[in-house]
């Protein structure tokens, strides 16, 4: 074999090794909500990608190759929302489908180029936490905790009466006039203060949402 062919084989092998060694950003990543927009959540798991935070959930296969995010077969749920939120879904789908550059900096993940870049923070692993399905009413009700406040109304079955939830659901930003069905994670709080809950509720997925007429 010639020296030139040997060099080409070595170069090809090195490039393949670099590509395969590119770290995959497995886990849950979340952006900060801005201008009244809900935060975006990207979850990478076993070669798949799931995205939520707009109207619909986006999902497909995903991998990182040479610093670029490659998303194949990107699909979406088909819920109808307001035009602004639907436009956000389209922009996000276009970004993910454009093979954007991706860079991990510690517990941050940067997706896209400056000016159209998602800055995401790594979230704790809640894969082992138990899940629950709950309904959330379209309006809050006055309640008294440490002080007077407005509480979410929740229930597990549609036939049950509403119960006040003294606290928030992490990652969930309800809009007035919209009723939700959520899948949540229940996370135990170690050594909670006497006046604090022993469980945290963390949004896992918006299963359904419905506009409620006043």
Automatic annotation (TrEMBL):
Residues 135-209 form the DUF4377 domain. The keyword Cell membrane does not apply. Keywords: Signal. The keyword Glycoprotein does not apply. Transmembrane segments: none annotated. Residues 1-21 form the signal peptide. Residues 36-113 form the DUF306 domain. It holds the Pfam family META. This is DUF4377 domain-containing protein. It comes from Vogesella amnigena. The lineage of its organism: Bacteria, Pseudomonadati, Pseudomonadota, Betaproteobacteria, Neisseriales.
């Amino acid at each position: 074999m010639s020296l030139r062919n040997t060099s080409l084989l070595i170069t090809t092998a090195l490039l393949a090794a670099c590509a395969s060694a590119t770290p995959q950003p497995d886990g849950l990543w979340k952006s900060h909500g801005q201008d009244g927009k809900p935060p975006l959540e990207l979850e990478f798991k076993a070669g798949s990608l799931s995205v939520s935070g707009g109207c619909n959930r986006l999902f497909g296969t995903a991998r990182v190759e040479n610093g670029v995010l490659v998303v194949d077969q990107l699909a979406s749920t088909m819920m109808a929302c307001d035009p602004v939120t639907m436009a956000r879904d389209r922009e996000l789908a276009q970004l993910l489908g454009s093979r954007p550059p991706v860079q991990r900096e510690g517990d941050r993940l940067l997706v896209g180029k400056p000016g159209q870049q998602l800055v995401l923070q790594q979230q704790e692993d809640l894969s082992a936490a138990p899940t629950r399905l709950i309904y959330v009413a379209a309006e809050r009700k006055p309640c008294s905790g440490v002080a007077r406040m407005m509480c979410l109304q929740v229930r597990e079955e549609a036939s049950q009466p509403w119960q006040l939830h003294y606290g928030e659901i992490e990652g969930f930003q309800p809009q007035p006039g919209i009723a939700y069905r959520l899948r949540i994670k229940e996370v135990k709080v170690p050594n909670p203060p006497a006046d604090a809950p022993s469980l945290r509720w963390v949004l896992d997925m918006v299963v359904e949402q419905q506009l409620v007429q006043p």
